[in-house]
Amino acid sequence: MVRRHVFPALRLLVWAVIAVALVKIAFAGADVTAEATGARPTGAVVDRTVEVTTGTVTNAVTVRGSVVADPSVPVRATLAGTVSKVLATDGQRVEAGTPVLEVRQETPQEPLTRTDPATGETTVTERKPKVVVQQVTAPVGGTLSLPTLKDQVVAVGDTVAQVAPGTLSVSGTLTPDQQYRLVGAPAEAQVTLKGGPAPFTCTGVRVGAAAPAAPGPDPAAEPADPAATPSGTITCAVPADVTAFPGLGADLEIVNGTAADALVVPVTAVQGTVQRGNVWVVATEGAEPEERAIGLGLTDGEVVQVTEGLAAGDRVLEFIPVPGGAGEVDCTDPAQYDPAVCGG
Question: Residue 88 contacts by C-beta under 8 Å, 6 or more apart in sequence?
Fold first, then answer.
């Protein structure tokens, strides 16, 4: 009788008690524990600091580019008139200053009128037009493309021919960061061709503006990473004794200054990258960081030279403070809860 009725009833009662306890722990256990112990989880974010040190900074910028054929140079008429002579042929190899064609300009002159004082008779004498002949020469050496014909009328500035120089250059695009680091760049760069000869010196380094971007489906849309958007170009001439071909990939390395025994801090610690910047100085352990303006010099992308505002041994925040991200963390506030600080 006891086994049939009492024991099954006791088992049901035990399972019911367990179920109620689990429900209470699931929905109120954390609060009960906190209230029973009186403990509240709290934490504080500790900002990492670094020391201002001395070192050597080399501002070396490496740009990925390619070999390109130099564009043809236009030959322009410098006189309005008629082509009286063609002095070169299409496809001819010319040197700089080689005469290409001749332009003749005729300007009519007013006739001369003379009156005889004795008889009053007037005599009109026609005058020949004023003639100016000017040769148009090739501005550079190369292969001539000459579509202009004899007796063709041209105006000042008209393109009468083209000269393909047959030379090569290495060209690449620059990001805003690279363009800032190349302000005042030297006229030489070290170039390494993909699968080509040994690295060589490329001369005539020129930094210019980037070509306008082609309009996309949404011109107002912001780029995903503005810092990586090309803002400039860099070009230098391939020496004549280097064998290269248009389309070959190339790396340009430009060393734009070296500073020895310079005060340096990580670039992550500085707000700004060129000329002037801000750092947050920690005077003593546990003190509030103080914002300070400093002068900036060369950078290698990892550290930046400090030209004024700091001394060796000063301590600064390793990372620029995020507005609203510093100070105490209240782990009871869901908006501030940080597992790294609050313990999971």
Answer: 94, 98, 99, 100, 101, 138, 144, 146, 161
Residues in contact with 87: Cβ distance below 8 Å, sequence separation at least 6, in sequence order:
99, 100, 101, 102, 135
Say how far apart CA 136 and CA 158 lie, in whole Å: 11
111: three-class secondary structure by DSSP: coil
Residues 6+ apart with CB under 8 A from 324: none
Residue 147 DSSP symbol: -
Q: Express each pLDDT in 262-291 by its tens digit.
A: 999 999 999 998 899 999 999 888 788 999
Q: Cβ neighbours of residue 331 under 8 Å, at least 6 residues apart?
A: 40, 41, 42, 43, 337, 338, 341, 342, 343
Picking from 273, 295, 293, the residue whose alpha carbon sits closest to that of residue 183 is: 273
Question: Is residue 293 within 8 Å of residue 307, measured between CB atoms?
Answer: no
Tokens of 174: 């620059």
Joined together, the tokens standing for residue 80 give: 């309005």
Of the CA atoms within 13 Å of residue 85, those in its CB half-sphere come to 10
Mean pLDDT of 10-21: 74
Condensed to tens digits (0 to 9), the pLDDT of residues 163-178 reads 999 999 999 999 998 9
C-alpha separations of 164 from 170, 196, 208 in Å:
17, 24, 22
pLDDT in tens, 26-82: 666 545 444 555 555 555 556 789 999 999 999 999 999 999 999 999 999 999 999
Q: What is the DSSP-derived secondary structure letter of residue 271?
A: B
Q: How far, in Å, CA of 150 to CA of 102, rounded?
A: 9
The dihedrals phi and psi of 301, each to the nearest 5 degrees, come to 95, -15
